[in-house]
Amino acid sequence: MSQILKTKTARFLTLLLLLSLFSCQKDDTIVQSLFDLSGAPLKYDDSEANRHLNVVSVSMICSKDKTENTETICRKATEAKHAYPNAELILFGESVLGWYIDDENPEPYQRSIAETIPGPATDSIAQTARKLNCRIGFGMTEINSGKLYNSFVLVDPEGEIQAVHRKVNITPDDVLNGITPAAKVDSSVTMVQINNIKVGLIICADVNGFWLTKQLTNRNVELILHPMASEVPMFAIDAVSRQFNAWEVFANRYGNELERAYSGTAFIADPAGTIRVGDSGREDFYYCKIGVN
Amino acid sequence: MKHTKQITFAIAFLVFMFNNVNQSFAQDTTIHAARWYIGTNPLAIPMGFSIKAEIKRFAPIAAGNEYGANLAGGYFFRPNQSVEGRLSLSNIHQVAFVGQFHLGTNYFLQKNKILNGQKGWYVGGYAKYWDFYNRLTQVHFHNISPYLSLGYTKAMNRFLFDFRLNQTLAVYSWSSLEHTRAGIDWMLSPWPEFIPVLPTLTLTVSYKF
């Protein structure tokens, strides 16, 4: 190879190296692609784990009527607990007190189903949690000082509200719904300890927020509770648990709400991204005893 | 034996891929000008940077799932057959850095055409290794995957314009994450429930020397 060509090649390689060093994403939104889902499922061994949590992920059909949904949550939690008496935490999807969005009348509809926390819906669900001696997590539209928040409430087995997380990374649909995002400050990072496991609470597109991801991974989160309103089909591997290096419980809704068709995809995945249990295309619930090494 | 299937599979693929290469080096004594080429996939470069979310989510399919800085290089060891390597290094988003290396061979169906400055169709067989590295958790997810290509190259002076379709067949994965064992699976698409078979496209512009 001539000296000129060698020089040109060296320059080309240097340019590529510089490009790789400067490749970057400037904003806070993590845009995952199909590449994040590429790979074979791995085998994660939690047989020697010393901390455990029995969790159930629910996929449910949501009515437009809030009272009906509150009753459905209580009924499904009872059914899940009867099916899996060991269950310690039952997770429902995002904004399950009503439709995720009423495309014909988004904000007025959200205002009509919004409640304070605590409020009638949380009181009713807390009563069920106490009766079942089990935690219940669910998403709802919260109203506080006239502002709407897309919130996730976790009620403990004593019927007390253990945590409330407000969605940080809102979507264009949330904007139409009149939702205010939670500020990117420490108090918006919601973590609790359950059975000595560090549990992080996120809602739907929060998963695309780099700031929140960093906050939770810096705190060594071990389990992500992730209520969704998602139309996506089932994954072969779970990119979210790989993103956080944590177990993920993914709960969702199923069925049509005007033109939107929610897939019912719900699952529980281990930190290697392997989906332990779950399915799509129906209303159901899925149980797993997770082990944290 | 642990992983016997996987090892057999990998060896069979590599033997198949390089059998022709060895034979050709032994038999083909013809001297051809401009046997080497070096190039890049220009569509992959923007994938390493901030672009519109809707584009970034699916455009990598049109960039062969290569991201950011990338280099392709090859050698025609026969007039109608080349061996090629591809390297790509980039953050694919704020959380993950992916380094990938591909190695394989392209067999042109019309003999002698490419080196003589024309154009032609080819089929290729490759193995791809990539390391999906989570920069926040410091966990590596390693993968090796065989794939087949169908391509078309047009030579113009010393430049090669190459357009190909790639179809992944299977994947063998392992991780630096503790308590994790390797896995192997067929993979015609990374999201089979969404789309059962998903080939990718690659455009490469190369310079012959």
Share of helical residues of chain A: 25-40%
Q: Which structural class should the secondary elements of chain B be placed in? A: mainly beta
Number of helices of chain B: 2
Number of strands of chain B: 11
Question: pLDDT under 50 segments of chain A (min length 5)?
Answer: none
Estimate the strand proportion of chain B.
over 45%
Largest inter-chain contact set? A-B, 56 and 60 residues
Number of strands of chain A: 14
SSE arrangement of chain A, N to C: HEEHEHHEEEHEEHEHEEEEE
Query: How many helices of chain A?
Result: 7
Classification by helices and strands of chain A: alpha/beta
Please provide the ordered H/E string of secondary-structure elements of chain B: HEHEEEEEEEEEE
Question: Could you state the oligomeric state of the chains shown?
Answer: heterodimer
Question: Distance between termini of chain B?
Answer: 47 Å
Morphology of chain A: globular
Low-confidence runs of chain B: 1-32
Structure description:
The complex is a heterodimer of chains A (293) and B (209). Chain A is α/β, with parallel strands linked by helices. Helix content of chain A is 27%, strand content 30%. In chain A, strands 2, 3, 4, 5, 6, 7, 8, 9, 10, 11, 12, 13 and 14 form a 13-stranded mixed beta sheet that branches. The longest helix of chain A is centred in the N-terminal third of the chain and has 20 residues. Chain B is mostly beta strands. In chain B, 14% of the residues lie in helices and 50% in strands. Chain B is built from two helices and eleven strands; from the N terminus they run αβαββββββββββ. Chain B has an eight-stranded antiparallel beta barrel. The N and C termini of chain B lie far apart (47 Å). β1 of chain A pairs antiparallel with β9 of chain B.
Write the layout of secondary structure elements.
The complex is a heterodimer of chains A (293) and B (209).
Chain A: H1 3-22, E1 43-44, E2 51-60, H2 66-83, E3 89-91, H3 106-113, H4 120-132, E4 135-144, E5 147-155, E6 161-166, H5 172-176, E7 190-194, E8 197-201, H6 210-218, E9 223-227, H7 239-244, E10 247-257, E11 260-263, E12 266-269, E13 275-279, E14 284-292
Parallel strand pairs in A: 2-3, 2-10, 3-4, 8-9, 9-10
Antiparallel strand pairs in A: 2-14, 4-5, 5-6, 7-8, 10-11, 10-12, 12-13
Helix pairs in contact in A: 2-4
Chain B: H1 4-27, E1 36-40, H2 53-58, E2 69-78, E3 81-91, E4 96-108, E5 119-134, E6 139-156, E7 159-168, E8 170-175, E9 180-181, E10 183-186, E11 200-208
Antiparallel strand pairs in B: 1-2, 1-11, 2-3, 3-4, 4-5, 5-6, 6-7, 6-8, 7-11, 8-10
